[in-house]
Amino acid sequence: FEYLLNHLRLSLPVSFEHFEAYTNQSRDTLISLVSESKTQGFIEVNHTHLTLTASGQMFLDDVLTSFLPKA
Which pLDDT score is estimated for 61? Predict the structure, then answer.
């Protein structure tokens, strides 16, 4: 969560290679985690990274809370 929080709040792209190296999680895990935000048009995913859209920047809190486990 902190990795995504730090990158997305600064509007930095999240490189899959960098994500995998620093979190020991696969890109498939990340893609699965952001699927809801992608469907809502808040995140764009390509073959090397993901980025927030303009809408995603406006709704950053919603995007970030979608990564947290459901209670």
Answer: 94
